[in-house]
Structure formats: structure tokens, C-alpha cells
């Protein structure tokens, strides 16, 4: 009987410890994930805008600016990563600036720069995710 009681107490203490650890892990800094969620949101908005037949470069410019502003938050938010991560972030920002500088009568001119932005994101995620 005493062994069963000690076993039950051990199970209860173990469960409480596991729950405490789980809560501590869940409360870590949410900002890095928020930055990535916002990057995905703005990239998705741009993708939808570019597929719209009435798309104009002037209409997508504000969304590109938002994407650039969010990408500028990556280095300070992800401090402590290696030089490769910093280079990938700089590459992404450069590709966003190139897309912003792209001029054309229609949104078709933005298709290639947006593919380059997506590739920059994917390359970093393959390495660091």
C-alpha cells in the first residue's frame, strides 16, 4: 500500500513539473514568431494583389513598403544568430528593395522580383528553421 501511495505522489509531482516546464516554454519571447507571421502576411497580400487583373504597381507599393519595414525588424529581433543568418537577412532586404525599385506599366514586372523574395525566404527557412 505504501509503495502505491509513493508511486501516486511521484506521478502527481512529475505531472505538475511537466506542466510547469511546458508553461515556461510556451511563454518565451513571441516577437520572433510575430515578425515571421507578419512577413508571411505581407507576402501573401502581395501575392493576392499581383494575381488581381486590376493590379497596378502603385497599388502594391504600400504593401512592398510594409514588407520592407517588417524585414528590417529581422536583425534586431533575431540577435545572436550566426553571420550566415545576418547575410540571409541582408539578402532578403536587398531583394525587397529591388522589387520596390522595379518600374513597369503592369504588375507583371513584379513577378520575377517577388519570386526572388520568396526564394530568399525559403533559403533562410531551409537553413535555420
Tags for this entry?
129 residues, mainly alpha, 6 helices
Molecular shape: elongated
Radius of gyration using CA atoms only: 23 Å
- How far apart, in Å, are the first and last alpha carbons? 50 Å
> Can you give the helix content as a percent range?
over 70%
**Structural class determined from secondary elements:** mainly alpha
With helices defined by DSSP (H or I, 4 residues minimum), what is the helix count? 6
Question: What is the beta-strand fraction?
Answer: under 5%
Oligomer status: single chain
SSE string: HHHHHH
**Which parts are unreliable, with pLDDT below 50 for 5 consecutive residues or more?**
none
Let me know the number of strands: 0
Average pLDDT reading: 87
Question: Largest sheet, if any?
Answer: none
Write structural notes for this entry.
This protein has 129 residues and is mainly α. Helix content is 80%, strand content 0%. The protein is built from 6 helices and no strands. The protein has helices at 2-26, 31-51, 57-72, 74-77, 83-101, 111-128. α2 runs antiparallel to α3 (57-72) and α3 packs antiparallel against α5. The radius of gyration is 23 Å and the shape is elongated. The chain starts with a helix and ends with a helix.
Amino acid at each position: 500500500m505504501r509503495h502505491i501511495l509513493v508511486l501516486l505522489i511521484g506521478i502527481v509531482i512529475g505531472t505538475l513539473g511537466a506542466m510547469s516546464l511546458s508553461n515556461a516554454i510556451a511563454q518565451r519571447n513571441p516577437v520572433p514568431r510575430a515578425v515571421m507571421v507578419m512577413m508571411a502576411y505581407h507576402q501573401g497580400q502581395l501575392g493576392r494583389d499581383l494575381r488581381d487583373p486590376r493590379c497596378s504597381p502603385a497599388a502594391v507599393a504600400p504593401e512592398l513598403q510594409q514588407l520592407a519595414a517588417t524585414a528590417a525588424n529581422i536583425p534586431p529581433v533575431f540577435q545572436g544568430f550566426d553571420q550566415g543568418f545576418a547575410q540571409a537577412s541582408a539578402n532578403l532586404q536587398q531583394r525587397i528593395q529591388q522589387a520596390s525599385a522595379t518600374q513597369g506599366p503592369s504588375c507583371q514586372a513584379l513577378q520575377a522580383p517577388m519570386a526572388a523574395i520568396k526564394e530568399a525566404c525559403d533559403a533562410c527557412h531551409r537553413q535555420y528553421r
